[in-house]
Amino acid sequence: MATQLETTGTLERRLAMAVAVADVDKEVADRLRKLSRTVKMAGFRPGKVPMKMIEQSYGPQVHAEVLGDAVSRAFSDAVAEHSLRVAGQPSIERREDAAEGELGFAATFEVYPDVVLGDVAALEVERSACEVGDAEVDRTIDILRKQRAGWETADRAAQDEDRMTLDFKGSVDGVPFEGGAASDFQFQIGQGRMLPDFEAGVRGAKAGESRSFDVKFPDEYGAAELAGKTAQFEVTVKKIEQQVLPAVDEEFAKQFGIADGSVEKMRADVRANLEREVAQRLRARTKSAVMDALPAIAAIELPKALVESEGQALLERAIADLQQRGIDTKNIPVPPDAFKEQAEKRVRLGLIVSEIVKAQGLQAKPDQIRKQIEEFAQSYENPAEVIRYYFSDRNRLAEVEALVVEQNVVDWTLANAKVTDQTLSFDDLMSAG
């Protein structure tokens, strides 16, 4: 049946369409007949329920389903007829001006914008680099040693990295407070577990020594009754222990899966793991720089439907994250436009990336997908099992494919934009959020 397309906005369209009443009635009758063969009603055997009773009980529901299907097909056909790219779900309402024997409907919706890419050569992108040297390997091995350290009593004043055992009592204006007292309490100095004033108060003390000192609680402290207040603590030190680090030897290497205990092999493994971590962080950092720059090459009118859908998805993810942390989200007020700006950025970037992929032929190739999965698998004990895990599920493969496509866009941008190389220190890279 004939359809009419009307442009009602930059991206908004209104499509008038109709479905034949006779076609709907015929489909309803067919479905009711099929239903009559299996429907059960009290007092009747299956297949013997009178058609009038079936029509009374199921007719409205079946009619609504058939009409919905017919309108959906009519809309899909009309979209294909007019070569439209629909963004989001249409809003469909009845029309009263349909011809005799037809049911008229009007669908209002948005279409995807035409994305005209500018000159990527005008973009400025910063690409990061970082080297892994012997010093980084040594420091990592020291961390591994500390994780496996033993403890021995130290007959000296307490210093950073020592473990202290102590009794303490705290009060505010002479009044003890909940959680302010403990016996045989252990903590390691310099790890940030205790408030700075508390650590400063016990640093330098010896076993058997008692001290009194003030501790200022931060204004944003979790316990409201203590926030911003100054407490007085009385502390008795019972024991001071120092770390005993294991030697970097054959036995130590074997703890990390080096069967023959070779320290050089262990160092090589540590270096390889660090280089893999550094490479991942560098890729993520450079990718972020590229994605931040790309929106400048195209001015786009964004479909409201896509922005609203993305904003809702961001909201749902935020709520799910809070709930996983044990936070009750029922009474947390969320402004309607809380995620609008972020959603607009994501939709705009998605449209631009999609156009670049199409224009430059940057779709993921099978060998790229396999290479990416093999790279993931390198950090696991059984790489072959990880590879099978990805290739056994289409959804997992689709996720990898999306990552590969994004990397293709990054590589293409770096090859064509103005790129400035920046060398980062290992510490700066690893501490970056």
CATH topology of the largest domain: Trigger factor, domain 2
Q: Describe the biggest sheet?
A: 5 strands, antiparallel
**From the alpha-carbon coordinates, what is the Rg to the nearest angstrom?**
34 Å
Low-confidence stretches: none
Give the number of DSSP strands: 11
Total number of helical segments? 12
Helix/sheet category = alpha+beta
The helicity comes to: 40-55%
- Level-1 CATH class name of the largest domain: Mainly Alpha
Question: How would you describe the shape?
Answer: elongated
Which CATH-level-2 architecture of the largest domain? Orthogonal Bundle
How much is the average pLDDT?
A: 93
- How many domain units? 3
CATH level-four homologous superfamily name of the largest domain: Trigger factor, C-terminal domain
Strand content: 15-25%
The end-to-end distance, rounded to whole angstroms, is 57 Å
Strand and helix order: EEHHEEEHEEEHEEHHHHHHHEH
Structure description:
The protein has 433 residues and is of the alpha+beta class. It folds into 3 domains: 4-111, 2-Layer Sandwich (Alpha-Beta Plaits), CATH 3.30.70; 150-244, Chitinase A, domain 3; 283-431, Trigger factor, domain 2. The chain has helices spanning 21-36, 51-81, 134-147, 196-202, 250-254, 263-293, 304-324, 340-360, 366-377, 383-391, 394-416, 426-431, and strands at residues 4-7, 12-20, 86-95, 102-111, 124-129, 150-153, 163-172, 175-188, 210-216, 230-244, 418-423. Strands 6, 7, 8, 9 and 10 form a 5-stranded antiparallel beta sheet that branches. Strands 1-2-4-3 form a 4-stranded antiparallel beta sheet. A two-stranded parallel ribbon has the order 5-11. The mean pLDDT is 93.
